[in-house]
Amino acid sequence: MSEEEKIKEMVKQKYSEIALQDKETNSCSCCGSGSCSTEVYNIMSEDYKDLDGYNPDADLGLGCGLPTQFAKIKKGDVVIDLGSGAGNDCFVARAETGETGKVIGIDFTPAMIEKARTNAEKRGFNNVEFRQGDIENMPVTANAADVVVSNCVLNLVPNKQAIFKEIYRVLKVGGHFSISDIVLVGELPKQLQEAAEMYAGCVAGASQKSDYLSFIEKAGFKNITIQKDNPIILPDDILENYLSKEEIAVYRAYPPIIHSITVYAEKQGCDCSSGCC
Fold this sequence. Notes:
Helices cover 34% and strands 21% of the residues. With 277 residues, the protein is α/β, with parallel strands linked by helices. Strands 1, 2, 3, 4, 5, 6, 7 and 8 form an eight-stranded mixed beta sheet that branches. The chain is globular, with a radius of gyration of 18 Å.
């Protein structure tokens, strides 16, 4: 098994466990409730409660932004959510695209797909579907989507350049994406880079911010825009699992390395079927 395959399997196992829990359980173990912070994977989540389409049953508290809030989704749009989890962003996107649109969630964890489908069926959402697959090789035809969204998922995949090429493939000309993700500005201590728990928590797998934006540009996207940029402060009781007190002091002496960003970009050009080429 290659190193990339090992990482993917580790992430799949971790998120399979999370899929079997509710948000309260996840929050209690990941500091979302403020009572503890012994895990990492939802310490960066933001509050969806004021967004139309929000369904608490589908919110596992695993995101690091609100990409659907910035995604400029219009009525009738086809929207793809990468790493759709229990369906939270898909249901918010559905509220934006309406009955005439369509939302496709893609996730490679079977337990998440099952949970999302159950949530959709409970609510009678016939224009929301969930497909199991790898976001580096999406089970979607080319030029299918008006909008792609994703929330704190791409950082979990080793080959990020391949993902942005896939996003470009599935978007229609004139389409765009809005993606929330974790990036780095500077180097993480080696202990954090190597920690499996930190990887599943979206931190150790994160790219440098400059590299991340370069991947987007190299894939062919234009009008690349940072819609939101928040520094992430890891609590000491998390850092203590990996660093000594002296190392934590050194880590704290510098500006925050971990950032949550929401980035927007467009697939521009000409659709040759319209005769403009």
